[in-house]
Amino acid sequence: MPKKSPNPVKSLKIPLFILLSSKLCAFISPKLATLYAARLFTTPIKHKVPKRELDMDTASTQKTIHIPAIDKNITVYEYGKSEKKALLVHGWSGRGTQLFKIADALIEKGYAVVSFDAPAHGKSKGNSTIMSEFIESILEIEKLYGTFEIAIGHSLGGMSVLNSVKSGLNIKKAVVIGSGDKVQDILDDFIFKLGLKPEISIHLRDYFENKYEVKMDAFSAYKAAAKTEIPVLVIHDKDDPEVPVKAGIHIHKHLKIGSLFLTEGLGHRKVLGNQSVIKKIIEFIQYND
Fold first, then answer.
1. What is the residue extent of each domain of the chain?
2. Which one, of 189, 146, 140, 208, lies nearest residue 171 by Cα?
C-alpha cells in the first residue's frame, strides 16, 4: 500500500463569490436557491489541458461523434492500436486525457485505449450536463467502436461505468476509482459545501426528479453494483476529500464479484497516477486473462 503523504490532502475550494451568491439566493427564497444550486450542480468547470497530458492529447486520434439519445456531440480520443480495447471515463470537470498514465500502462500491455470528453467537458461543446449523458455517451461509443475488454472510470466516471453495465455495456471487467455512491449523499455534500440549509438538498433532488422524470437514487452506484455480474475492482483513497472512502467500501460491499484496494495520502486525483494503483489495475486486468 502506498505510504501516506506528509502533506494533507486538500479539497477543491468553492469560489467566494459562488458562496455569497448561494446565500443571497437562499435569503430571497428557497426556490431561487434551489434553481441556482441546480445550475451550479450541472455546470462543470473546463480546465486547460495540463502539460503532463499533452503527450496523449498529441498522440491520440481525435474525432467528434454524435450521441443521438441526447442530441449532443462529444470529442473521442483513440490512443494506440490493438484488437483489445479499453474504455476510460473521466470524472466531473475532467478530460479524456486525465487518465493518461493508466492509458500508457494499458498500451504497454497490448490494449488500445478509447476515452472521451463528456458533454460540456474538455473539447466537447456545451455548458451543462448530467450523469445520464455520461452513460448515453458510453453506450453510443460501444456501438461505434465495438466491444471493450475493460472500462475504467474515475469519480462520476466510475458511477457512470457501473450504471452503463447495468444498462447493457458488454465488458469483461471494470475498475472504478474514487467513485461516488449514493446520489443523495452527493447532493447533501454539494449543498453543505455551498453553505446552504440541508432542506435545499431535498428540494434539489425533487427538482431533478421532476425535470428528468426519474428517481435520482436509481443512479446510485451501489444499486448498479448489486446488478453487476462481472469482476469489478474498487479503488479509493482513505484521505479522499472529495468523495469519502465510505463510498468505495459501500460499493464493494454490494458487488457480486468485487475487489477493494484502499490507498492513503493520494486524495481524489493523485490516485490516478500512482504506480501502485496502476500496477494493481494491470494485475486485476491480467488475472485469468
1. 14-43+191-214, 53-182+220-286
2. 146
Report the relative pairing of strands 72-79 and 112-117 from DSSP bridges: antiparallel
Contacts of residue 265, Cβ cutoff 8 Å, sequence gap at least 6? 2, 3, 4, 5, 9, 237, 239
Whole-model pTM over 0.70: yes
DSSP β-bridge partners for residue 199: none
Helical H segments across 120-259, by residue range: 131-145, 156-166, 183-193, 198-212, 221-226, 245-254
Cell numbers representing residue 181 in the block: 455512491
d(CA 90, CA 157): 5
Q: From the CB of residue 45, how many other CB atoms can be counted at a distance below 10 Å? A: 10
pLDDT digits (tens, 9 = 90+) for 31-51: 999 999 999 999 999 888 999
Quick check: 118 and 129 in contact, CB under 8 A?
Answer: yes
pLDDT in tens, 132-173: 999 999 999 999 999 999 999 999 999 999 999 999 999 999
| Coil vs helix vs strand at 64 | strand
Which CATH homologous superfamily contains domain 53-182+220-286?
Answer: Alpha/Beta hydrolase fold, catalytic domain (3.40.50.1820)
User: In whole angstroms, what separates CA 158 from the centre of its chain?
Assistant: 5
166-218 pLDDT tens trace = 999 999 999 999 999 999 999 999 999 999 999 999 999 999 999 999 999 99
For 146: left if phi > 0, alpha if psi spans -120 to 50, otherwise beta; the answer is left
CA 193, 199, 201 angle in degrees (round to 5)? 50
Quote the CA–CA distance of 136 and 89 in Å, as a whole number: 12
* Cα 31–Cα 35–Cα 37 angle in degrees, nearest 5: 115
